[in-house]
Amino acid sequence: xxxxxxxxxxxxxxxxxxxxxxxxxxxxxxxxxxxxxxxxxxxxxxxxxxxxxxxxxxxxxxxxxxxxxxxxxxxxxxxxxxxxxxxxxxxxxxxxxxxxxxxxxxxxxxxxxxxxxxxxxxxxxxxxxxxxxxxxxxxxxxxxxxxxxxxxxxxxxxxxxxxxxxxxxxxxxxxxxxxxxxxxxxxxxxxxxxxxxxxxxxxxxxxxxxxxxxxxxxxxxxxxxxxxxxxxxxxxxxxxxxxxxxxxxxxxxxxxxxxxxxxxxxxxxxxxxxxxxxxxxxxxxxxxxxxxxxxxxxxxxxxxxxxxxxxxxxxxxxxxxxxxxxxxxxxxxxxxxxxxxxxxxxxxxxxxxxxxxxxxxxxxxxxxxxxxxxxxxxxxxxxxxxxxxxxxxxxxxxxxxxxxxxxxxxxxxxxxxxxxxxxxxxxxxxxxxxxxxxxxxxxxxxxxxxxxxxxxxxxxxxxxxxxxxxxxxxxxxxxxxxxxxxxxxxxxxxxxxxxxxxxxxxxxxxxxxxxxxxxxxxxxxxxxxxxxxxxxxxxxxxxxxxxxxxxxxxxxxxxxxxxxxxxxxxxxxxxxxxxxxxxxxxxxxxxxxxxxxxxxxxxxxxxxxxxxxxxxxxxxxxxxxxxxxxxxxxxxxxxxxxxxxxxxxxxxxxxxxxxxxxxxxxxxxxxxxxxxxxxxxxxxxxxxxxxxxxxxxxxxxxxxxxxxxxxxxxxxxxxxxxxxxxxxxxxxxxxxxxxxxxxxxxxxxxxxxxxxxxxxxxxxxxxxxxxxxxxxxxxxxxxxxxx
Length: 787
What we know:
Helix content is 2%, strand content 40%. Strand 52 (726-731) and strand 53 form a beta hairpin. The two termini are 48 Å apart. It has a 15-stranded parallel sheet that branches. Strands 5-8-11-14-17-20-24-26-29-32-35-38-40 form a 13-stranded parallel sheet, with no helix packed on it. Strands 41, 42, 43, 44, 45, 46, 47 and 48 form an 8-stranded antiparallel sheet that branches. By secondary structure, it is mainly β. Mean pLDDT is 90; it is low at 1-31 and 512-518.
């Protein structure tokens, strides 16, 4: 039975719908805003169709008409029509064409009977809303391409505003292999190769999709897919802008017994997939030698998956509930996975970049809870992975070689696999491991019983998992490591404590919530002024070689030092950090603090590779200053180098320039992605370098942000030829892409203000030269600061 999930927030949405190509010659309807009635029993196609007393009868009649803005096509409740519905015409913004039912009773049925490839086919139209229909298309045997609902845009441009709401799609037997251009329940696809085409504003909401093959719901496959190849997953701005579908929302749908995948957005830019349920999918793909999972993206940027429930997914090559697959910055949060034969999460292959998996619950998933492959990268934090009695589930099914972190998670095991393999390529921090005989290299691990209220008691529904809240005496409370930009709340909506987070999905409500000011007390922390001030040198100098970052570092000869007086507050705990290296392996190099109201303390680095030293100190009752230092004792023979020093008040969050390598001063594009662009050692505004952007090129950088916060982006831009268009902008922050245009040959500062969405923890800033004019543009000195 379909379970409808309540929602606690609203999004303003518009959705695009595309209608069908005709076989019969269309009859043009001149009236605008007309309501047409169709009755499968008492209708007559010779009627005018404009009242319940004079309804039309057939699908063929509907298909012969070109409808206009504001028209309504109402099918009588309880009616049954066999064949294909292919309506035509387009609505306009604010005045869509609507298909719905009238009268009381069961939803109108459109039954393809396996005699048509597509039951409801929408082709090259826009501004449609289709509601309250039952769609089916069962043939005698499986047939590739057989589909319940297909929306196709073919060499069309941008197809806008298509809503599919409260449709019941079932019994559609396509084959078990084809998964892109239409084969199963509901599909949106882009075809053609001559006109840049994509969808904008798609809403699929409150639909039920059952017993379809291969895929339940898929939105966005494009025939332009080859353009995304060759970038390692970091797709250029102009490709995403031209070909990735925008404003796609898939919400509160129920998918049951799909032969393969349940829900898959493809080639979408910031799609939102929320409050959906997938039950018992992957029913046929294993026998066909195919791989599939529950709910996942393909070649999407910034896809957000939240408040979804997936259970009973069948095992095949994959078989997980969720999957981060060939997509950038995918976020899974507040989801519930249980009893899936292939596990909870797959992070798949080399082009799955910077995924975030947080505040999810996995209960009694099989095989291995987590899987990674290739060079996929991401951070898995504050999740609960619960393995119940008698299960032979392992924490990891298989792993790749990418940069992957796991923090603040609960690995809870009552199963039979007690001694397991913990992949060494994962960086573990502050996780809880309960019920295992061995543990990974996690210096801050916790092995206590988490003391759940009632672990393992989750049922059907994302609201049945209160048992995973922590008891008041749990040692996991205030035992996690702070993670910046972590979404702002736990699984149940409790706000997070930035100073002492809990381990797991529940943030125990203790104390005041605060994110105090974060200020590095060290001035000229990387010696980037080219001078030492306000550091004091003894037998030391500023060096333009051997630096860790930037152009300079501090060089300290034998028996020398750099010191700086910093301001502090009394009775406060600070952390001093600095990156240090020595010329000769084994020579001592000290990072230390003194005159702070306590005993002088230091840490020693003796490596020729830059190593971060760290010291924590608590100031005295009357201390207002302290002295930090880097010191080479009178031992050994070579010099030491120090860079990137910081003194931070503990339990704080940073308020800093969020742009890395903001002036391209590394001499390369570190932290930036470039297309038809380069680093230039001429035309810079300050320093030694700037970014050069050729026509139809861009520089982009992903930055970390906090949800629902206002930021200001600034940057200095100029063009080679007066009047050429050069843009500074931001996108993927939870709102529409915004930019400012500079067309001057003199450096001019551009400014863009933006406010992040409720759940956004990243944004993309860019400078972009459109395909106009002839010359290049130059950009320098970028900043993103919170207001």
